[in-house]
Records
---
Amino acid sequence: MEYKTTLTTCPYCGCGCGFYLESIDGRLVGTIPSKTSPVNKGKLCIKGWNVHEFVQHPNRLTRPLVRKNGELQEVSWDEALDYTADKLRNIKEASGPDSIAFFASAKVSNEENYLLQKFARAGVGTNNIDHCARL
């Protein structure tokens, strides 16, 4: 049995609380607040304490799905990305960049949310981006 802790940042809000994710044999089993984090100083909200649970939830999507013949089918990442790029390009050409909007997630890092807004604004050319963060 391999026990491991990994220092990371909570994905739920913009506070940036630090904690350790506990894993046994590669499976997340718990969360320990970082006592040395200058943000949360060893404390966590209820979401932070339970953050490890959504990662392995049985309903979480782990592979890309594309609708084919009216049904969602599992496809490779390359196929899913090509499909998405083609659809975005077609929508942008037909209706302009402001016909596209993006919705960021509270369950990814601030850096990943930054990349999405940068892609929306610089890549697609729209300011239509929002975020679902709720404390």
---
Amino acid sequence: MVRIHLSRLLGEKRMSQRRLAEATGLRPNTISELYNERAKRIDFATIDRLCQALDCQVSDLFEYIPQQDDVN
């Protein structure tokens, strides 16, 4: 599973979703889907814009959490 830490980053930077949309040129709906971790996919250009606007690394935005198989 991949976790998206956009809500945490925006909180730390005291930035609104609207301000991020304006800074990146991304649609507010795109920002909202990422913020609420409902996005199904994301392209590299979007990741690049987010990292530039938030002055962060890709690893600050995303975290991979391996899913554990139920072994009984």
